[in-house]
Specification:
Helix 2 runs antiparallel to helix 3, helix 2 packs antiparallel against helix 6 and helix 7 runs antiparallel to helix 8. About 80% of the residues lie in helices and about 0% in strands. It is globular. With about 200 residues, it is mainly α. The protein has one domain.
């Protein structure tokens, strides 16, 4: 049963990421390159940390999503958000400096705790960008991430901090992101109609 849930979660990762990638290529959304760079690194660490702590097939969805995370990061360099602020750069530096303890500890649990913290810090530039430019994102990817991470939790073969923390954090932050995109777009739409 866990294998089926893991495969379904991996399929949801593809379903959520393919339309987002298409939107990037068609310039309908603008991923923040700093966020996607850090997510590429963090997802890789999370994947191997979860495997090391016994996630088993529960790591498959993270692996599937990681492939798209790297691809989206690469395309964000050309098609992504260009209005990078000093604050964005500061968060990038903090996130990258946070990788040093991970390299030094080599403990999967500590590594996952560190990279999840980094992941949340890396989300800040995208949250800021989305708050100011809600049309630069689409809720499909983030809402699918919520579903995928819930299913990932059910597919884990071992439950501990290293296997669960990333999904729990991502359920929370992707729910916030989805809500922000939808509510900000609705607010802008309502303001547009009031002006007209």
């Amino acid at each position: 049963m866990k294998e089926i849930i893991a495969i379904l979660a991996a399929v949801i990762a593809v379903i959520g990421n393919v339309p987002y990638l298409i939107d990037v290529l068609k310039k309908r959304v603008q991923p923040h390159p700093y966020t996607w760079l850090v997510w590429s690194i963090v997802s890789c660490v999370t994947f191997f940390g979860a495997l090391a702590r016994g996630a088993g097939v529960g790591a498959i969805p993270t692996g599937a999503a990681e492939i798209f995370t790297v691809i989206i990061f690469l395309f964000s360099l050309q098609y992504g958000f260009k209005q990078i602020t000093k604050t964005d750069t500061a968060f990038l530096v903090v996130a990258l400096v946070g990788l040093i303890p991970w390299v030094l500890t080599k403990d999967p649990t500590i590594s996952v705790i560190i990279v999840v913290s980094i992941d949340l810090i890396a989300f800040i530039p995208t949250l800021r960008k989305t708050w100011k430019h809600p049309k630069s994102e689409t809720p499909v990817l983030y809402s699918m991430n919520v579903v995928r991470h819930v299913m990932t939790l059910f597919s884990l073969q071992a439950y501990n901090i290293a296997t669960m923390l990333h999904s729990i954090a991502m359920i929370i932050v992707n729910t916030i992101m989805t809500s922000m995109i939808v509510s900000r777009k609705e607010k802008n739409l309502n303001e547009h109609f009031l002006v007209d």
